[in-house]
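Hello K.,

You asked for the raw outputs rather than the summary table, so here they are, unedited. I folded two proteins back to back in the same session to keep the settings identical. This is the first:
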Amino acid sequence: MSEDWKAYVRRIEDLAARSGLQFHPVDFEAVPDSFMMEIAVYGLPVRMPHWSFGVRYIYQLIQRHMGNSRLFEVVFPGNPGHAYLAESNGLAENILVTAHVLGHADFSRNNLLFRRCQEQVSEHIVEHAANHARQIQQAIDTYGRHRVELVLDAALALEQHIDVDQPLRRPKYPEYLPEPKPLVDDEFRKRFAALEPSAPFTAGEVRKRAPVPPHPERDLLWFIATYAPEMESWERDIFLAVREESFYFYPVFATQIMNEGWASYWHARLLREADFIPQQAYLDAIKCHSDVVRPIAADQQIALTINPYHLGFSLWEKIIEAEGLEAARKIMELDDDFGFVRNHLTRELADELGLFRYSARSDGQIKVLEHDLPALQESLLHQKYNFGAPSVAAKHIRVDGTLELVHDHVTDGRGLDPERSRKVLEYVHRVWRRPVVLTTVDGQGSGLELRTP
């Protein structure tokens, strides 16, 4: 890859700042394509070792050899942000990617969900994750790879089961139920209480312990790390490290359509306004932009199943055209993909983009199901609920230590795959070290209880 693109970085940054983008500094680095793939698979340049990442790497490698996947850049929000560009990129691609990354940097600095999660985790996530990797390597050296891998199996099987509505650093539940609130000090209540006075609380009286958990707990990583009866401290540290990194990744997942669309809108706009880019590089970059934001046909349940770049870019263009850039920035700051799609994907735009729900038969016949807009919106968002994981909560710890889990199949609108669920329960049992029971439904909606051992 030619190094000429680096001469344009500062000029594109200046243009972006003059255009109103507000971003933390970004460190740009060109890396080999193989390292790019490792970053994309692991999610971070340095991360805890685990066999599951190797499986994902092989999948991505196959996809690339089949021509179905190519990585131009991987960006990590923070202060500073980190952007890794593929060495195989040409000048035009890197000019476009630089502008695209600055759109991401503006989004992650100003979007409320990103800001809240980064404030709790760290604005230096790359360094933070490297510390986690070193801690886990120390655990491997001390306790052996096999023991550490068993804990990582369980933690990573639950990595989506967090609750971002709770703070990252949560206190334990109250140990006791709250004491009854004193009666209102009025004459009627005093006279009523005097009819049958009750003995006042004495120091020797036993207070009633609060149940654990006091309510269904969705943050399974935190709950197990905090309440597993025999978990060792290094095992808890691994669970909490995985949870911390999941908090970092959640905004990326929950704002993908918005974020990729915002970055695509701004790379296109900055390219148009960058009169310092050579004409041929500009034309090549525009061609690359067209490839990035084109709709991608797929064999799933939504026609032209969703290229987030395409849908997000189209939505932002419509919003800015109708309401102006300042209104768009306010939406960017406050929304996630749920509000963005529900509030701004209109029937007219859905028709223009060719989005509709359909079913595909095994013989290849396609049938349009409906043009109902709310149903289409929910189809687009369905896989985003609960971080893309089934809604499972810790419900109760029995006297013998058995952990009861419950699946909210009504909210999910589906049952669980018994084989995969049993495997996850086996992972959980290894660290809980007591029986684990999960209540759910099967594919036909009938009640199902899974347990281990």
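The second followed immediately with the same parameters:
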Amino acid sequence: MSKNILIRNVPESIHNWIEEERYYRRMSKQDFIFQVLEKTSTYGQLPLHYFENIHPVAETVPSAISFSFVDLFSGIGGFRLGLQKVGGRCLFSCEWDANAQKTYYSWFGETPYGDIRTLKISDIPDHDILAAGFPCQPFSIAGVSKKKSLGRAHGFKDSTQGTLFFHLATIIENKRPPIVFLENVKNLLSHDNGNTWKVIENTLKDLNYIVYHKVIDACAYVPQHRQRIIIVCFDRDVFGNEIPFSFPEKLASTPLKLKDVLEDNPDSKYTLSNHLWSYLKAYAKKHKEKGNGFGYGLCDLNGITRTLSARYYKDGSEILIPQGKTKNPRRLTPRETARLMGFPDELKIVVSDTQAYKQFGNAVVPAVIETVAKQIIEVIHWHLTSKGRCLIKRQTSTTALESRHPELSHT
């Protein structure tokens, strides 16, 4: 049973009371509620003087800081899972794919807004962190190769996907989130001789953000070689020019092995047919004779896999599970692909196998997001404590809470 409990239909007055009380004590909403519940369950009632005994924790525990975020190009919610694990509260989501929306609704109880190109920026709530795994196909190796073979443009020349980053940039320009947290494929750095990345980086810098980026391999968290570029940006008007941010150096100490995520009794339908297995072996042999590296990937159960791609539904050739000398290998089951990406079993798969393979192949690894988010929280903590500020806001802003309690404002 999941330990995460969702309480619905709480009156607005209670929400406001919790927000003000936790704000006074510099605590996350979660920690404040937990302490209230603990005290209530211990004594059976809540004395009026109780709150004098609640001690602030944010000054010594950075992870106790709460923050809000929006989840753009959200897919099935990998960013959201990672950010919620460290105290984030999602205010808005956006994802155009109907099947991904179905999964997102099943997991989070809300259907993301559809096409970002028709989204009114005024409909996006103010937030602390803008998170986005913006479309990677125009910049991916596979996507570029396919488009070139068809004689089509790619990257920023693509009229349907290449300009989506600029919709994102327009939102950033207008909403001015203090922090921008992005993810994309590793090839983004080298695409078009580096020009694509230069345009993206310079766009963010022109918007007055300090930009950090690093390619992180998720194999420290899941049994899969999966390199992705992580981009973290801080608004200079909020944090200044000297920001103590760094990407995580220490990764998981005991990484999983492929066998750790496999099901005990997978359905026989995932075993390759004789025809498909013969085809894959012949295809691999042909390319090997030509000096190419194309072919199937028969995995070491004690090791890690290749990168799971969105095309895995076609034949599963990049990640095949051996089943002995007398039985053809099999592809991963949808649940195994979920585990390979680090999604917990309690999250139900509510779409077809084909759509599940596409969704997990396109997803971000939540554990990577969570780990980087902890580093971001360190900066938020530094910002709040070193400069004596209450909120992650621009210096000219005044919140509704501060207007009611001017003594709380330090700016």
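The first strand starts at residue 67 and ends at 72.

Happy to rerun anything if the numbers look odd on your end.

Regards,
P.
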